[in-house]
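Q: My labmate handed me this sequence with no annotations at all. I'd like to see what the chain might look like in three dimensions before we decide whether it's worth expressing. Could you predict it?
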Amino acid sequence: MNTTMNDTLKTVIDALEDKKAENIQLIDIHEVSTIADYFVITNGSNQSQIQAMSDNVAERLAKHEIHPRNVEGYSAANWILMDYNDILVHIFDKESRGFYDLERIWRDGKTVNIQELICS
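A: Here is what I predict for the chain of 120 residues:
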């Protein structure tokens, strides 16, 4: 993982943690897919929190001149997808996260230890 990617992932995770994101998972999918290199998957407990997490990620990355290619699902806020090219950020409500179960679907990817990432 290169330094720029590492820093971007740390920024995303920090922005999510700042808004009390639950059960953040980081999956390296670069060897199993061409759509992105990493999935960041988390959930919140209500629509306002989910939107606040999305807003915080966008604001923090914008400070580094990193802008999403696309954001989907913001108004409904049961699953917000933020497309940052090599990083896809998935912010779910609890019910939708369990229903779509991206961790199971993308189990061929490698789960990244977030604490190791943060300390690197």
